[in-house]
Design brief:
CATH architecture of chain A: Orthogonal Bundle
Distance between the termini of chain B: 55 Å
CATH architecture of the largest domain in chain B: 3-Layer(aba) Sandwich
Strand content of chain B: 25-35%
Shape of chain B: globular
Structural class of chain A: mainly alpha
Largest sheet of chain A: none
CATH class of the largest domain in chain B: Alpha Beta
CATH topology of the largest domain in chain B: Rossmann fold
Number of helices of chain A: 14
CATH superfamily of the largest domain in chain B: P-loop containing nucleotide triphosphate hydrolases
Number of strands of chain A: 0
Radius of gyration of chain A: 22 Å
Oligomer: heterodimer
Number of domains of chain B: 3
Strand content of chain A: under 5%
Helix content of chain A: over 70%
Number of domains of chain A: 1
């Protein structure tokens, strides 16, 4: 192509781009909600009413907002964990498992260790994060050293994590703590000192939210300002170019993988220390998996994770309230969420980019001229 | 079957770019019509419109006076217009026959009838004197034969007008001769050939008429007999162009790159570089010529550190870097202009400034305590853009938005930014326009003049001859000859490249 660009003023162009982008989100959401609405009306309910209940349940009043923030917290952390991997070209789909490991170890430290004041809380958070990191080490090493596909590995290890934590709790912890006829497979409650402070007692929203937001900002600056962030970004977009420039692709990819696991573990620790106060088997309802959708919606922008996470909190909290008030199952909202992401990413080029990256890793040539990114769903 | 093609006021816009701007062209039946122009001049867009890949925003196409509109290449093919792309569209592990009939299989009772196809093809090959081995699998054929398969394929599908997109870029001089003969044969039998190229010498040799494009417009159309390389170059670029270079004087410098008995294996474990030894001195340009796929690419990758060596050693400025990482080799003063600029040399989705920084991000100048000094980096990047005349909307646009020539300029700018001690340039001007080619070649020579060592690996023989102090020829992973450019000819090098020894000796090392 030539480079005689049309002489539009730049600002107008940028405003246009922003508007198009915003329109894509709106259209994708509306499409998702429309299909969700159809599902709701199948149940014999009025979709408009159902959505109204959802919104009120999420934002109508102090209690509702607090609960929305409570759900936004793991969404932000899990989304961030996934994003860190995605940005570096690491498809860590094991955030769920890392979250379990983090949750379990945080609970362990929370109830079995005695430390003064905030130190206990920090130790439990740290231990949870490290557990997540350690759990991501296995697929990371397999990937980097032996080229074993991390997508399959991390997915499978999620099951290992659910079942292993359940097993350990039931066999080693519950039997030794003398609990009889367990109704639920849980660890003992963590000590007061290990709990995260609540934002609006007695509601469950806690300082974990600030941890998430702060971390998102940190990650943003990491990618914007640091040498490693710069290199990781290139590794994620074009590993062949990074290797050409002298970047140690394997080492950095490994680092991103572990960092992703670390944040995943932290997400689990925050859930336990902030909300549940004990580890229960299979407690997470797809918190980790939601991270993938959130990362996709935020287009792997760490700052974008914050609003998307909040939005996720609204949907999740609202869905619970919708379920209480109507006969509609909250699964409908999960469908809406999934459709939203689907419609948005149809055009986002994210998939295309992933494929290209894959091809580059395998050293296959890429089609020339396949770079125009227009054509949209709007 | 004679087809006259008229393109009238063809206009095609891409977002932000006017690729073709009211282009008019008449392609007479039974002639070779060359379309030349710099990259981005709009010639491939035009041809893609003619072959049905794109649809014009405005204007019309007339075939024998009748207006046509092609929604896809199949429709164009139905009107007898076929294109042989630069990248061949062949299935490597199918036979030639199957490749040719793929999608156009003659069938009998719902079954593919290969015997019918074979008979048709035999006649066709006889008529045009274009023999291809029908039962060989494509991957076993040399590139020149694959190209011929593409041509036969187009003829089989009924092409009366053949569009050849940069057909000689993959051929040796001898193979190009053979292709030109084939083109003349086709034309003598009434076919029309549209020949896209940026090599002016061969355009003059093969074409009857030449259209020159610049900035989306036809800026000149003339019979080949009235044209010279100089006039064509001036039309294409819009100013006089320096085409001849003199390599720097006799090198007397210290050895900068020493490769000793290096062997490299490819992914399948085959030795693709065998016991290769050579030295590049400061102030010298050492050219390596060879047909693509004879080990040059692996040789370069091994020197750069992107693939491991199997045996032998590599020294840069007397430091053993045989096992060193790319980063360490870069620190030793090595820079690399890779053949694949779109995929190895740049990150298309990343901002231009990020592309210009690559390899330097650890330099104290650009980062402290792991934090990028963005102001310094941006000053550095905008300085490079100005110094090397890179045309870009800003430093922040993705590198992929730059045209091929500008992208290559950006790579050259980055690699030469801080005065390399050793430059490895791999096909540095492949597929870029004359203006950018002139620029890149001059920059490469300046490295040598400034006391750096240059290893130039190129499939463009003219380029190797024009820039090198010494030329090594590679064939099947070995160096089969060393020549001084003044004492050799393209023909002789071509024979060496084809694996035939000259002067009665096999003078490899």
């Amino acid at each position: 192509m030539g480079d005689r660009s049309v002489g539009n003023p730049r600002t107008a162009k940028m405003r246009n781009a922003v508007l198009t982008e915003a329109a894509k989100y709106v259209v994708a959401l509306l499409l998702g909600m429309t299909i969700g609405g159809v599902l709701i009306s199948f149940k014999g309910e009025d979709p408009v009413f159902a959505y109204k209940v959802l919104l009120e349940g999420a934002l109508g009043g102090r209690a509702a907002i607090a609960q929305t923030l409570r759900w936004a917290t793991p969404a932000i952390l899990a989304g961030l964990a996934t994003t860190i991997g995605f940005r570096a070209g690491v498809f860590n789909l094991g955030v769920e498992g890392q979250l379990y490991m983090g949750a379990f170890v945080a609970a362990l430290v929370g109830y079995s260790v005695a430390l003064p004041g905030r130190a206990h809380m920090i130790a439990a958070l740290g231990a949870g994060a490290l557990a997540g990191a350690a759990y991501s080490l296995l697929p990371a090493v397999l990937w980097m050293r032996y080229g074993i596909n991390e997508v399959v590995n991390t997915l499978m290890l999620n099951y290992v994590a659910y079942l292993l934590t359940e097993y350990v709790v039931r066999v080693f912890i519950m039997s030794s703590s003398g609990s009889v006829v367990p109704l639920q497979i849980v660890t003992p409650e963590i000590a007061e000192s290990a709990r995260l402070p609540l934002l609006f007692p007695p509601y469950q929203a806690n300082v974990g939210l600030f941890i998430g937001v702060l971390l998102a900002i940190l990650v943003y600056f990491f990618f914007q300002r640091t040498v490693w962030g710069y290199e990781l970004d290139i590794v994620g977009r074009n590993p062949a170019f990074a290797a050409y420039g002298g970047v140690s692709v394997r080492r950095l990819g490994m680092l991103a993988f572990i960092a992703s696991g670390l944040v995943g573990g932290l997400a689990g620790a925050v859930e336990i220390l902030g909300v549940h106060h004990k580890f229960a088997a299979q407690f997470s309802i797809n918190l980790g998996f939601d991270g993938v959708l959130i990362a996709l919606l935020a287009k792997n922008d760490p700052l974008g994770i914050i609003p998307v996470g909040l939005f996720w909190g609204i949907l999740r909290n609202g869905a619970y309230s919708m379920e209480r008030m109507t006969s509609v199952s909250r699964i409908v909202i999960q469908v809406v969420q999934a459709l939203f992401v689907l419609f948005l990413t149809v055009d986002a080029g994210v998939i295309r980019q992933m494929l290209r990256r894959r091809r580059a890793l395998r050293g296959k040539p890429v089609q020339k001229g396949a770079t125009t990114t227009h054509g949209s769903l709007v | 079957m004679q087809k006259e093609i008229r393109l009238e006021n063809i206009t095609k816009r891409f977002p932000g770019v006017l690729a073709d701007d009211h282009v008019n062209m008449i392609i007479s039946a039974g002639t070779v019509h060359a379309v030349v122009g710099e990259n981005g001049a709009g010639k491939s867009t035009l041809m893609n419109i003619l072959s049905g890949l794109y649809q014009p925003d405005d204007g019309r196409i007339l075939v024998d006076g009748e207006q046509v509109r092609f929604e896809n290449p199949r429709q164009a093919m139905r009107r007898g217009i076929g294109m042989v792309h630069q990248e061949f569209m062949l299935v490597r592990n199918l036979t030639v026959l199957d490749n040719i009939i793929l999608g156009f299989e003659p069938s009998r009772a719902g079954m593919i009838s290969r015997s019918v196809a074979r008979r048709v093809l035999k006649d066709l090959m006889n008529a045009y004197k274009l023999d291809v081995p029908l039962d060989e699998t494509v991957e076993r054929l040399p590139v020149s034969m694959q190209q011929r398969v593409e041509i036969v394929k187009a003829l089989y599908r009924g092409a009366d007008v053949l569009i050849l997109d940069e057909p000689t870029s993959v051929l040796t001089p001898q193979e190009s001769r053979v292709l030109f003969a084939a083109i003349r044969e086709l034309v003598s039998r009434g076919k029309t050939v549209i020949f896209i190229s940026h090599k002016l010498g061969e355009v003059l040799e093969v074409a009857d008429r030449i259209s020159v494009m610049r900035d989306g417009r036809v800026v000149g159309e003339l019979p080949a007999s009235d044209a010279t390389e100089r006039t064509l170059a001036r039309l294409m670029v819009g100013r006089d162009v320096l085409m001849n270079f003199t390599p720097p004087g006799k090198p007397q410098g210290d050895p900068v790159l020493e490769v000793k008995e290096m062997t490299v294996k490819d992914a399948r474990g085959l030795e693709v570089v065998k016991q290769v030894s050579f030295t590049v001195h400061a102030g010298e340009v050492l050219g390596i010529a060879g047909v693509a796929g004879n080990g040059q690419s692996e040789l370069v990758k091994a020197i750069v550190g992107l693939v491991p060596t199997c045996s032998g050693s590599i020294h840069i400025s007397r430091r053993d870097v045989t096992k060193a990482s790319v980063k360490h080799r870069r620190q030793a003063g090595m820079r690399y202009i890779p053949q694949d600029r779109a995929w190895v040399g740049t990150c298309r989705q990343s901002a231009l400034w990020k592309n210009l920084l690559m390899g330097y991000e650890h330099y104290r100048k650009f980062s402290r305590f792991g934090l990028l000094r963005l102001d310094v980096v941006r000053r550095f990047a905008s300085d490079l853009v100005a110094r090397f005349g890179i045309k870009t909307a800003s430093l922040y646009v993705p590198a992929g938005t730059l045209s091929g020539g500008n992208l290559q300029k950006a790579i050259v700018a980055r690699e030469l930014a801080l005065g390399p001690r050793l430059l490895i340039a791999e096909d540095p001007t492949r597929g870029i326009d004359i203006g950018a080619t002139e620029f890149v070649r001059r920059q490469v020579l300046q490295v040598a003049e400034g006391g750096g060592a240059v290893l130039l690996v190129s499939q463009d023989l003219q380029e190797v001859m024009a820039l090198s102090n010494r030329i090594l020829v590679m064939h099947k992973g070995q160096i089969v000859g060393e020549r001084m450019p003044a004492e050799t000819t393209e023909e002789e090098l071509g024979l060496l490249m084809a694996g035939r020894a000259t002067r009665g000796t096999h003078d490899g090392r």
